[in-house]
Amino acid sequence: MPLFTVFTPAYNRAHTLHRVWESLKAQTERDFEWLVVDDGSTDNTAELIAQYQREADFPVRYLQEPHRGAWAVHNVSLRESKGELWTKLDSDDGCVPTALERLKHHWFAIPADQRERYSGVTGLCEDQDGALVGSRFPVDPLDCSAAELEYLHKVRGEKWGCLRLDVVRQFPYPEDLSGHHIPESYVWCQISQEHVTRHVNEVLRIYWTDTPSLMRGKPNPKVNAQGHRLWCRVVLDLEHTWFFTAPLRLLRAAIVARGVWELRLDQPEVPTLAEACRRALPLVPGAQVTGSTTASFDHAHAKCGDDAKGADMVYRLDIPSKSRVRVVEHGDFAPVVHVRQRCAEEATEVGCSSDAVADEEAAYTGLLEAGSFHVDMSPCPVGCPYRF
Predict the structure, then answer these.
(1) 103 with 80, same domain?
(2) CB-based contacts of 385, cutoff 8 Å, min separation 6
(3) Are residue 136 and residue 15 in the same domain, yes or no?
(4) What is the pLDDT of residues 300-335, one digit of tens each?
(5) pTM of the full predicted structure?
(6) Which residue range(s) make up the domain with 92?
């Protein structure tokens, strides 16, 4: 079984497939297979892949399907892939020579006993001229869900990486809508309910902008009404807790979904303490973190600051050796910082501070042994911004 399956959907792309081929030949990591699923091409794609199969020193599998649309061949790839990690490289794009090597490095850098909650690894893209596509991640690495990346960190633009095959297999596209565009966020919305992704600020993919993609594109409701409506329903069902962060996006989705969704503002869903601990993002020394307490909770009460009854945000702090740590928090309402060895257990609190160091600021300073800690911020009521 290979470590990676590189899946390429193809439909009359014989003139651009060489980009993928040349990229894969140049990979420094060789533990992969290339799976090309042809959606009924009428050009010389079959002959070209046959030539590649004769020349390749890695497995190349070619599956010919009747023309049913991009989402049908995507589902075929999920059934036929053999790798532990799955990645899609479009038929008009490429990747840097170390792309698979770096994805492997970052995947196995996640402790084995924690990988179950991760869906995969995602990096950056640049275009054929070397310009960065979209924005960088605010910290490196950034462990968060797709929803948190969108709403909390406001990262924009094309990204690329790998997913655990056993995870992405759980979320195929509905094949009765084949031929209708369904945004890829249809899958990411569902994955983000149970898993986080490790995001790294490394360019891994070459995103060519000279041809329209088989799989990507704008979800135009006039042209792709069914797929667009399905995507809106998924967004509403799974991301409504972010309403106060992006009300216009969700209201537009509600309009397109045509009344299949009811918004209840009086009892918004918030994560449990266990869920917030599981989703805890890493703190990086010297880096500033910003966010909002939208969809936060008030479950973790501290020993200082009048029991810290405010909206809480949880972060993870990994300390390789005994160190003096200082965390300064800026919030709109009597901020409190407290640190625990085990996130959900109040008895493991090792420090707490509500001492003001300036207007609307609090600081915790302490000497911590090597290990993993959880830092709980209670910066303000639900719905306000913060930074530290």
Answers:
(1) yes
(2) 290, 291, 292, 293, 332
(3) yes
(4) 566 675 544 455 677 888 888 888 888 776 654 556
(5) 0.67
(6) 4-207
